[in-house]
Amino acid sequence: MSAVATAPALEIVDLEVVYERRDRDPVRAVAGVSLTVQRGQILGLVGESGCGKSTLAKAAVGLEKPRAGRIVFDGRELSPLTRRARPLEDTRLQMVFQNPFSSLNPRRKIGAQLQEALSMAWKGSRAGGEGSLRDRATALLEQVGLPASAAERYAHQFSGGQRQRIAIARALAADPTVIVLDEPLSSLDASAQAQIANLLVRLSRELDLALVLISHDLAIVQHIADEVAVMYLGKLVETVGSGELWELPAHPYTEALIGAIPKPDGERNLPVALAGEVPDPSAPPSGCRFHPRCPYAMDRCRTEEPPALAIGSGRTVSCWLHDGAAEPRRPAELAAAGRGAAGA
Ligand SMILES: Nc1ncnc2c1ncn2[C@@H]1O[C@H](COP(=O)(O)OP(=O)(O)OP(=O)(O)O)[C@@H](O)[C@H]1O
């Protein structure tokens, strides 16, 4: 992990996002989430489909209005304005979407689209002119591993991986501090995924960029994230340094997610199976939201919601198994020691 800056690049505090629906209960898609990302750091945000990852990402960059909570970007609290009305500095918080094809203009050359992104970010504040915009666009293409000739081509002339490189180059045009990437690899084949993952690590290190990488693919996150936040039904259940997480998952949900990653020999990592579907976020279970699916659930889990408990250095887990636990341990070990149903 690289050096930690004084103010976090991005800090999200108790964020809540609710979708109101006509004639139906509102969906509390993000139900009080706090997390922090430092410059030069990659934070992986993982969880099953529907747990609120995209909503959290959109709220973080101002595309969705939070009902409550704060977003502090580079030490300044972001105002709840639309993106276009935000001050210029706030464009340094960028987002890259899953499908780069839909976010690129099919009728404009890539070079022109990059120049447009550069001039919007510069807004005449820097000495420029067409020549320097063109040079800078070429430099952006090189930064993401594409030749200068890519500027003269259109989006459909590139592969999926190349298009994602272009989308990243366009985000870089704003000279960002933070980029939130929502499933940037999931539409790509395995080899393009590996290349883009390597590119993200390089850019984060070279440009001291904070990256929030949203993915349901734990195997990829395992390779490139420094920190991982695990989300379940609108809440974070565990936040931890990446290496530690894979060695010693502390939340039963994390244990199950990691257990589901196939090993190269076809075996699973751990014998914990995740039963059932993610419940409806408009009517979440009482107590711990994970308790109906948890193999270690105790009586308390059905009625009392666990807070984020600090275990180890900088690590938090929202699980009653760890209440009073002196050090991180596997859920199965804690249950066997008498804390959960399995040991009761
Ligand atoms: N515009 C909306 N109106 C109502 N409900 C919504 C809206 N957008 C998302 N939701 C609901 O909010 C919850 C969280 O959705 P979100 O897309 O943030 O999850 P996700 O973890 O990103 O899932 P995926 O990986 O499938 O995109 C889901 O129950 C979803 O159905």
From TrEMBL:
Recorded superkingdom: Bacteria
Entry keyword annotation includes Transport: yes
PROSITE patterns named among the record's database cross-references: ABC_TRANSPORTER_1 (PS00211), ABC_TRANSPORTER_2 (PS50893)
The protein's name: Oligopeptide/dipeptide ABC transporter, ATPase subunit
Occurrences of domain ABC transporter (ranges): 13-258
UniProt similarity note: Belongs to the ABC transporter superfamily.
Record bears the keyword Transport: yes
